[in-house]
Amino acid sequence: MLDVSDAAIITKKPPRKNTLSRDERKVRAAFIVPAVIYLMFMSIFPFIYSVYLSFYQAKLTRLHKKFFIGWDNYKQLFSDEVFLAALKNTFLLTTSSIILEVVLAFICAKVFLSLKEQRVGYFLRSMSILPMMITPLCVALIFSYIMNPTLGILNYILSGVGVEPISWFGNPNLALWTIVFINVWQWTPFMMLLMLAGLVSIPTSLYEAASLEKARWWHVARWIELPAIRDVILIGVILRVIDNLKLFDLVYITTRGGPGDRTELLTFFTYRQDFAFFNVGYGSAAAVVILVISIIVTTIAVGFLRKMQNA
Amino acid sequence: MKKLLKTTCAFAMASAAMAGSALADGHSVDWAAELGDHTGTDLRIQVINDPYTGPLAQMSSEFGALTGANVSQDELGYGGLYEKQILNCSQGDDTYDVLFIDGIWVGEFAESGCIDPVESRIADTDDGIIAWDDYMESFAGQASWDGERQCLPIAGYWHMLHYRTDLFERAGLEAPTTFEEMLAAAELFKDNPDFPELEGGMAMNFQRGAAAGQQYFEWLYSAGGSPWASNFVGSDDVYADLTPTLNNPEAVKMVEFFNEIAQYGPPGVESFAWDERANAFTQGKVAMINNWSVRTPLFTDPDISKVTDDFGVAMFPHAEGQSSVPPVGGWIMCINANSNNKDAAWDFMKWFASPEVHTDFVLAGGPPSRHSAFQDKQVNAEQFWTPTLYESAQAAWPDLRPRHPGTFQVIDAIGLEVNRAIVGEISAQEALDKANENVTQILQSEGLIAR
Predict the structure, then answer these.
(1) How far apart are the first and last CA of chain B?
(2) Which of A234, B103, B228, B364, CA to CA, is 20 to 30 A from B383?
(3) Sign of dihedral through CA atoms A32, A34, A39, A45?
(4) Which uninterrupted H or E stretch holds A304?
(5) Closest CA relative to residue B152, chosen from B396, B354, B394, B408
(6) Residue A16 — very low, low, confident or very high, per pLDDT cuts 50/70/90?
(7) Kind and range of the H or E run holding B137
(8) Burial, A15: exposed, middle or buried (Cβ in 10 Å; 0-12, 13-18, 19+)?
(9) Angle at Cα A125 formed by Cα A182 and Cα A99, nearest 5°?
(10) Which residues of chain B have a CB within 8 Å of the CB of A278?
């Protein structure tokens, strides 16, 4: 999960002022250099090396025998049915999860806003953020037990009302939506918190004016609340897009990409190439593609946000 | 094929008798003279977290008492172990001295220089300690690659059919011997009001990936099929021609059988792997499973099993007109090529794998891998499944699953398509045609077949 502070990248650059003395600049540089060196070794070098490897046919165990194949890994990727399925599934997972999270989070935020002066409101708000405090791996394990088709409690409860046992992770038409459900369960509270913070900051005078005008709840939502918190929503969406593009744990534990390729995601595809088959050339090409997609999506979203801020 | 199997069995029995007589001659090892003094040496073992890790730790402490070595073991899951071992190897890591590797990984590890071959060390060691002829032939071959012994076979697994004796008795059925009988039994037990405790007749490994991929190989030879041009029971050189024949008619029929029997499995069987399959059986939810013998002792453990006294074992079933060729697998013990304690590692390995110590290991709960352990009276008295397992081990084919460096990817590629057929996305023929095409590409890129 990215820090909310990462959203700082989308703020406007302050006007450049060059009023520092040479000594002051040296001191500032001295503070920055260690971080830059660390970043070079931990992020930039691995990235450049990944790009380099993506042009080779290379196995981790026999790196000394790698050979240059140009763009072949990339060409193969875009004709690889499993990779294309991973692209489609990642898109479906990301869009459906975020739409559901935004809708549910807005409803929850409104409920908590109406309870803001009550003790029960504080309690429920604290309880509601528990899911996002659990490690995703543990969430996946918990749900794999709950939704186990033969021994899980969910099917046991449903059988009480006459529902036949459901194969939550094994049914090809259901597996991806089960993943979406768990993902939404865990991360709606994050979006809710952002929206609640936005809603709390709306001046009460606007609500009073709406009340005098006899506005209905959907008028308030459409003309006051949503416009007031749209920046916050967009920041939340950007962070969740990045999160969903790197979602891995849930699929690794529950479905392993199956049934068939119905829950194969880009991250899982890359993991299998890199760490199950040790095809580091092909895996690096997939990783580079994920990075490019992430950059394109976030650039578009950030541009959109800037446009909204300037409007 | 029956004739060949009979010949193989006869050879195995003769070898066993020879090895057994050598042991019966009272060949007693003077371990104090045979093993070095390893006082102060930290010997680290990396091992799969299969049910025999307890007995392994128990035996390791005895080695510590004999040599002064401080033996410790780290246990990991199947995929995690493979990843860690390969990553460690690529980094020249010397943390571990003894590596337990799956027999099918031997090609990858040997060709990548991750393990030290033990051929010359075997030549320098007393025959009575190594007793190579005492190993089950179907398992011993897993430790060799490119004509050289790389490791010592230590924990052989074979598949058996595990079935509920109480339910079969109530239904008036015998343990199935053919696919057809198995299908009929699975259908009878599924959704049958006379057996309300059951959720399915038969559970198998249908999960996409390694689970379904390995299952393809496990059942194929008993279905009468062959996955590679030169790999068939009795082949002199299974790696001579690796041209895939994955979509042979017998294999297509077998996957159709998988698809059919999945209907009679418990809910969600299409996503079952090893753990789910075993759990369904121990919790009394299914009437039959095929399973590796390493888990059989767990079914008798009242702490985790509800069927302790109500299950039996039978030979792996086969297609009508074919013979049973039970799957063989298991773990071999190797010296890490980057270890700084190779002599201590070899001392531990030869001691642990020696016939007498191996029998003690089996009695403590480890899987038997030697004729002498299979023939031990105490083992037979304590583990009722031993005679069936011995018969299975003698009928198995060592090269049932590929052992070359591309094996992981090949198995995964097949597992993806077989799973698609099982969930009904595509037909068995389409699935195997696609698998054949994909595996051909993998083998070509690995340089294992010509482009």
Answers:
(1) 32
(2) B103
(3) positive
(4) helix A280-310
(5) B354
(6) low
(7) helix B137-140
(8) exposed
(9) 40
(10) 86
**Which has the closest alpha carbon to A94: A236, A289, A242?**
A242
Question: Is residue B451 one of the residues assigned to a domain?
Answer: no
Domain coverage including residue B109: 2-150+328-395
Mean pLDDT of chain B: 92
Chain A residue with minimum CA distance to B285: A150
The arithmetic mean of pLDDT across residues B60-70, rounded, is 95
CA distance B115 to B108: 10
Q: Could you say which of B395, B411, B436 is where a domain stops? A: B395
Report A:59-78 residues touching B (Cβ under 8 A): 59-63
| Distance from C-alpha of B178 to C-alpha of A116, rounded to nearest angstrom | 68
**Chain A hits for B112, Cβ within 8 Å:** 61-62
Ranked by mean pLDDT, the top range of A200-204, B30-34, B186-190 is B186-190
The H-or-E segment that residue B393 falls in is helix B386-395
- In this structure, of A1-15, A21-35, A173-187, B54-68, the range with the lowest mean pLDDT score is A1-15
Contacts of A256 in chain B (CB under 8 A): 207-209
B297: Cα separation from own chain's centroid:
15
Residues of B in contact with A277 (CB under 8 A): 408-409, 412
Exposed/middle/buried for B81, CB within 10 Å: 0-12, 13-18, 19+? buried
pLDDT for residue A5 is more than 90: no
Alpha-carbon gap: A89 to the closest alpha carbon of chain B (Å):
16
Same domain for B141 and B183?
Answer: no
Number of domains in chain B: 2
Residue B208 has its nearest CB partner, among A155, A171, A256, at A256
Distance CA B338, CA A193 (A): 52
Q: Are residues B170 and B297 in the same domain?
A: yes
Please give the Cα distance from B348 to B96 (Å, whole number): 13
How far off is chain B from A280, nearest CA to CA, in Å? 12
Q: Nearest CA to B328 among B426, B395, B233?
A: B395
The answer on B84 and B120 residing in a single domain is yes
User: B38 is written with which tokens?
Assistant: 């390893």
Strands B98-102 and B328-336: antiparallel
Q: Taking the model in full, what pTM does it have?
A: 0.86
Contact check, Cβ <8 Å, A276/B112: no
Taking the CA of residue A20 and the nearest CA in chain B, the distance in Å comes to 47
Distances (CA, A) of B402 to A182, B226, B255: 38, 12, 19
Residue B87 at interface with chain A, using a CB cutoff of 8 Å? yes
Length of chain A: 311
Domain positions in chain A are: 82-310
Q: Is there a contact between B246 and B435 (Cβ–Cβ < 8 Å)? A: yes
Residues of A in Cβ contact (< 8 Å) with B409: 276-277, 279
What kind of fold does domain A82-310 have according to CATH? MetI-like fold (1.10.3720)
Name the token pair of B279.
């759990």
Is this prediction's ipTM beyond 0.85?
no
User: In this model, does residue B13 exceed pLDDT 60?
Assistant: no
Q: What is the mean pLDDT of chain A?
A: 90
Which is nearest to B272 in space by CA: B211, B327, B226, B316? B211
